[in-house]
Structure formats: C-alpha cells, structure tokens
C-alpha cells in the first residue's frame, strides 16, 4: 500500500463476542474508566462492516473529528463551572489579593472563553462542509493543555493540602482538585496523543513540511 492508512476497513465488533476479553485499567486516581481489549481469533461477519472495504480510514478520521467537536463544547461548559469554583477556592484561601494569582485566573478566564468559541467554530465547519477538518486537533490540544495547567494551579493554591487524597479527612473539598490533577495527567495521551495533534496542526493547519519519517498520505487527518 501507498501509506499505512490504505487497506483499513471499519468493522463493528460485539464486545461480548467469543474471543473478546475486556480488562479494566486502573489509573493514578485509583479508578478504572478505561479498558484494554484482547481479540483471540474473533470472527466478525461482513455485515458488520461500515462503508466500503479498505475505506475505513476516512470514516475513522471523520468520527474522531466529530467526537472532538462535541467534546470541545462539553468541555467548555464543564470548565466554565470548574473555573468559577477555582476562583471561589482562591477567595476562600485568601489568595486573590496576590496580583500573580489574579493574573493566572484572568488567563484561565480568557482560555475557557476561547475554548467555547473554538468549539462553536468547529461545529460551524461541520454544518458548512460536512466535516470538522484539522481544526478539531487544535481544540483537542488546547483543552489538554488548559485542564492540566488549571489543576496544577489548583494544587499550588492548596499548598501542603495538595498531597491529600480523597480518602483523607483533612483533604480540601474531599480531595477533588488532587483527583482532577491525577486524572488529567493522562489527558495528553487519550483521544490522540498531544504529539499527534501537534503534527496534524503543523502539517494541515500551518502548512509546514511533513515529517520525512512518516509515510505520504492523502487527504486531511485530525
């Protein structure tokens, strides 16, 4: 094939089919929101194929783009609330008198508004063109950076209390900020690594030369 994307077909697989094994993966928070899936001689009927044979990559690309577009709007609404709660936390701890703290909070305020506007722009592109295009990678990378830095700042506000987990009776707000910090460590891996997003943005948005180590592909990636 001309590239790694050629020869890929899109199949729907029943997670309860014979030979499919699902094992939960425990993360830093102690929870298991993700799983690893093993396929041992799993047979999938051709009726479960979506689209044409060998035409799966454009479907995967479009599906991911739509997922990120919808996720961007959900994340914007979520972090509008989380940021308001972070500002209240700063007030409770008497930190808002510090101009450096106020500067960081103002930066987060700007970025949460940008997050919402970027999500709206991506959805507008879907309505106009039928697909989100590489801009969805921009939104994904933006959200990853934002939520990691926000929780890092929250732990700075907590000081020594930032090492107390959810089960510690002395934890501030039942350890929710510590839990959020641990959870977002994986944000730069899930739904496409930050490195992949940066490559897509560099090549498809900024028009920079392709990585010579990567195979040549046709069409946009997201």
Folded structure, characterized:
The chain is mainly α and 222 residues long. It has 2 domains: 10-50, no CATH class; 57-205, Butyryl-CoA Dehydrogenase, subunit A, domain 3 (Up-down Bundle). Helix content is 50%, strand content 7%. It contains 5 helices and 4 strands; from the N terminus they run E-E-E-E-H-H-H-H-H. It has helices spanning 56-92, 99-129, 135-158, 176-183, 194-205; strands at 10-11, 20-25, 34-39, 49-50. The strands form 2 sheets. It has a two-stranded antiparallel sheet with strand order 1-4. Strands 2-3 form a two-stranded antiparallel sheet. A hairpin with an 8-residue loop joins strand 2 (20-25) and strand 3. Helix 1 runs parallel beside helix 3, helix 2 (99-129) runs antiparallel to helix 3 and helix 3 packs across helix 5. The longest helix has 37 residues, at 56-92.
Question: What is the number of E strands?
Answer: 4
CATH class bucket of the largest domain: Mainly Alpha
Shape: globular
Number of helical regions: 5
Classify the secondary structure makeup into a structural class. mainly alpha
Count of discrete structural domains? 2
Name of the CATH homologous superfamily of the largest domain: Butyryl-CoA Dehydrogenase, subunit A, domain 3
Instruction: Please outline the major beta sheet.
Output: 2 strands, antiparallel
Give the name of the CATH architecture of the largest domain: Up-down Bundle
Radius of gyration from the CA trace?
21 Å
Write down the CATH topology of the largest domain.
Butyryl-CoA Dehydrogenase, subunit A, domain 3
The strand line-up of the biggest sheet is 1-4
Order of helices and strands: EEEEHHHHH
N-end to C-end Cα span: 21 Å
Runs in which pLDDT lies below 50 for 5 or more consecutive residues are 216-222
């Amino acid at each position: 094939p001309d590239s790694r994307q050629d020869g890929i077909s899109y199949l729907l697989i029943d997670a309860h089919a014979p030979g499919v094994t699902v094992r939960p993966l425990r993360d830093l928070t102690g929870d298991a929101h993700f799983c690893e899936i093993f396929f041992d001689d799993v047979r999938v009927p051709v009726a479960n194929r979506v689209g044409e044979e060998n035409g799966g990559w454009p479907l995967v690309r479009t599906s991911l783009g739509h997922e990120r577009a919808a996720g961007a709007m959900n994340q914007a609404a979520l972090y509008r609330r989380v940021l308001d709660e972070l500002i209240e936390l700063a007030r409770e701890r008497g930190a808002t008198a510090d101009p450096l703290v106020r500067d960081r909070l103002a930066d987060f305020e700007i970025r949460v508004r940008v997050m919402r506007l970027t999500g709206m722009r991506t959805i507008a592109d879907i309505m106009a063109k039928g697909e989100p295009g590489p801009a969805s990678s921009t939104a994904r990378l933006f959200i990853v950076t934002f939520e990691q830095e926000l929780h890092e700042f929250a732990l700075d506000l907590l000081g020594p209390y930032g090492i107390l987990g959810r089960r510690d009776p002395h934890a501030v707000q039942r350890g929710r900020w510590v839990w959020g910090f641990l959870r977002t460590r994986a944000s730069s891996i899930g739904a496409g690594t930050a490195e992949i997003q940066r490559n897509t943005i560099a090549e498809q948005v900024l028009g920079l030369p392709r990585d010579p180590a990567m195979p040549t592909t046709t069409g946009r990636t997201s």
